[in-house]
Write a structure and sequence with these properties.
- By secondary structure, the chain is mainly α.
- It has one domain.
- The chain is built from nine helices and no strands.
- It is elongated.
- It starts with a helix and ends with a helix.
- The model has no long low-confidence stretch (mean pLDDT 88).
């Protein structure tokens, strides 16, 4: 009964808002990663360039160029993993300090609700950040696998191991990039989930805005237009 008494502060609209947030998060990811050839997303288009990268890499005399690119990609995953950890730590610290939490809640809303009401809302943000952290860490590891596989690719195209190993390195690279993009989307939705602190309606609005931003960058951005231009 005590749990039910605490949950009474969450109305039907809150449940709808959280459901829409989850559906939007899963749905936009599915559309981006499985976009068809008629309307490919930026992520799908970049996957082809990653395969082409590994093809060109085979005969490149100085492979330090490719090593620098891979190092830059790994630095990006490290940065976002660290940022996610800071966000997770801040969220958990806020949950653990009920007085500070209630003080912030009073500044954001006039609703008289117990600490657990706000803790649940912050926990949703923390869960998105935790998912992003795990994706970034796995992406960093996969880029490391890719580096090892690239080092095993012979410099001679006539070598029978050359093409197969380069193709494997390309697919690992694509998988690492996919995990990195999933982590970024989790961060986007974590920022959107912060709007729940203001209420269910702001959360619905923030969810719609987050989906719109992600859709535009993947399907209607200037970078996508450039990628679609013929060589």
């Amino acid at each position: 009964m005590e749990l039910l008494d605490r949950l009474q502060f969450f109305g039907p609209l809150d449940l709808v808002a959280i459901a829409m947030l989850t559906i939007a998060w899963v749905g936009i990811g599915w559309n981006i990663e499985r976009a068809g050839s008629k309307r490919p997303s930026v992520s799908v288009l970049m996957a082809q360039y990653r395969r082409e990268w590994m093809t060109q890499f085979i005969t490149r005399p100085q492979r330090i160029f490719d090593a620098n690119i891979l190092s830059t990609l790994r630095q990006g995953t490290t940065f976002f993993a660290s940022a996610s950890m800071i966000g997770i730590g801040g969220g958990l610290a806020l949950i653990g300090n009920k007085e500070q939490l209630l003080g912030i809640a009073q500044d954001l809303s006039l609703q008289n609700a117990p600490a657990i009401f706000w803790e649940v809302k912050i926990l949703v943000v923390v869960l998105f950040l935790a998912n992003g952290f795990l994706k970034f860490v796995w992406s960093h590891r996969l880029f490391g696998y890719c580096a090892v596989m690239m080092a095993s690719v012979p410099n001679d195209r006539a070598n029978p191991l050359c093409i197969p190993r380069a193709a494997k390195a390309a697919e690992i690279n694509i998988t690492a990039a996919r995990s990195f993009n999933r982590g970024l989307r989790s961060v986007y939705f974590a920022l959107g989930a912060l709007a729940w602190l203001l209420g269910a309606i702001p959360l619905l609005a923030a969810t719609a805005l987050t989906v719109l931003i992600l859709w535009r960058r993947e399907f209607a951005s200037q970078s996508r237009s450039v990628l679609l231009q013929g060589d």
